[in-house]
Amino acid sequence: xxxxxxxxxxxxxxxxxxxxxxxxxxxxxxxxxxxxxxxxxxxxxxxxxxxxxxxxxxxxxxxxxxxxxxxxxxxxxxxxxxxxxxxxxxxxxxxxxxxxxxxxxxxxxxxxxxxxxxxxxxxxxxxxxxxxxxxxxxxxxxxxxxxxxxxxxxxxxxxxxxxxxxxxxxxxxxxxxxxxxxxxxxxxxxxxxxxxxxxxxxxxxxxxxxxxxxxxxxxxxxxxxxxxxxxxxxxxxxxxxxxxxxxxxxxxx
Length: 253
Ligand code: ADP
Ligand code: MG
Fold this sequence. Notes:
13 strands, Kinesin, alpha+beta, 5 helices, globular, single chain, 26% helix, four-stranded antiparallel β-sheet, binds adenosine-5'-diphosphate
């Protein structure tokens, strides 16, 4: 990440992020396909009790400012620019509406999309992603209810990567799963459970199962934090009811 002091700032995401993830060379249009958002969480009660100051401040919708409070290491304030920054008073709903919704809902139109949270332990990844998942699923079901002309099938799978080992969170078996590369499917997880969803409550139940299955590693920062990566995958398939069972029927995935 680059940084310049004072009131200049760096457009970090466009320079470094997009090319790496898109594999490079797919043209200028690909740049807009990655959005980098920052969310600042409020100080915890412990942090407040210890008298720790908030060093990060969102000065507008896209810029975040770092002011070091180390007395023996004074540095100039540094500004960083992202597609969007959310200050600590923002609700998860706002983060979702303004930062995530469009990307998440593009799946119903056949677009492959992913939302992931990256950050230090205790920075608020689980808190944010739990809310974001809830909002996304509510909106997807809302979309389905409003489009009765199409028949939808939703499939759900979930894995955990812990110490480089891949585990199926929807299976009681503890055997590590293997990753394979396939010319057509890309990278996939062998023998992964995929559940066809009955309704939203079914999915809520499965997400709780995943949460219970996750290993909790103890760290100094946050006793409840799990030092593992969780990937939830929802596949949305739909076909026009009018053509169901006929030659012309096609399925959008
Ligand atoms: P991570 O998953 O990144 O390790 P958590 O999501 O577990 O971090 O968050 C650490 C703690 O901070 C939790 O107790 C969580 O409830 C709280 N927290 C995180 N983000 C917020 C927020 N935006 N508002 C209020 N509390 C938050
Ligand atoms: Mg977490």
